[in-house]
Amino acid sequence: MSRVLARPTPAAPPASPPQARQRKAFSLRLKRVGRAWQLYVLLIPALVYIAVFKYWPMYGVQIAFRNYNPVDGFSGSPWVGLQHFVRFVNSYQFSQVVGNTLWIAVLGLLLAFPIPIILALLVNQLQSERFKKFTQTVLYSPAFISTVVVVGIMFVLLSPRSGLVNNAIQLAGGQPVFFMGSPEWFRPVYVISDVWQNAGFSMIVYLAALSGIDPALHDAAKVDGASKLQRIRHIDLPGIMPVITVLFILAIGNLLNVGFEKALLMQTNLNLPTSEIIQTYVYHAGLQQAQFSYSAAIGLFNSVLNLVLLLTFNWVARRANQATLW
User: Fold this and answer.
1) Which of the four, 102, 200, 254, 307, has the lowest number of CB atoms within 10 Å?
2) What is the DSSP string of 277-302?
3) What are the structural domains, with CATH classification, of the chain?
4) For residue range 139-175, what is the model confidence (pLDDT) as tens digits?
5) By the 8 A CB rule, do 123 and 203 touch?
6) Which residues does residue 66 pair with via DSSP β-bridges, in sequence order?
7) Helices and strands counted in the chain (H then E)
8) Tens of pLDDT along 284-311?
9) What is d(CA 135, CA 124) in angstroms, rounded to the nearest whole number?
10) Please, what is the average pLDDT of the chain?
């Protein structure tokens, strides 16, 4: 009987050092995920929300490049390329709409951004904890008032006949001013009301950053004879500068997203020359006039400009060795 000898199976070649390191790193990641799987389960709803409500709607951006109609749908509508963008740039309303948006955005940035920092520095210097908490509550409580209610209060206070502000002007010997119907008053009223409503809430972020500064630095500065202003300048401001830089970059990236709801509620036929901004123009063109592709192109144009500003200022901050988003 012939004996069949089995051939030995050749051993697998040893893995190269890079492959071995990759396998080891992958196994370590799996172990970390396994140890903290509860945290990843808690993260799933947030990821689903972002995917469904943030990324999936981007599929509809294509209507900005089509002559969209609901019958043919997204993919069936004819492709027109940049036609709607060119139409918006060449329209007579382009300079007015973009100019109004820039004016309000820049004025809001110049006032609304530094005021919360100043408030946080002042509130942080209060010695009485009880009075400090009371002041914080008073400052950030307007943020919980609905925008509709805020605009209603503004119409009542600024009424040319019965408004408290105009009554005070008349008592001082002046003439009543139609604030809500005058184009030249729309921007100041919008910006000031926005600062009143949101400055206190934005202050909380800077107060949290100030609470992380080591108190020993202030104690050492007091021993050296530093005044409160000197301690604010040399300890508090440098301590919260990374937070200021990051929030400033985010504010720049959101510069052209002027509040649609307040602008629309404050808008009248009399102040339309200064109150028509990109967001309200998109509303009028898209929903009221059913120009879906045209309004989508304007909205995409606005988003691209914000993205360019965000990337530019993040690059400038990185070049200046400041805190950045990435």
Assistant:
1) 307
2) -HHHHHHIIIIIS--HHHHHHHHHHH
3) 82-319 (1.10.3720.10)
4) 988 989 999 999 999 999 998 888 888 899 888 888 8
5) yes
6) 79
7) 17, 0
8) 888 888 888 999 999 999 989 989 988 9
9) 11
10) 86
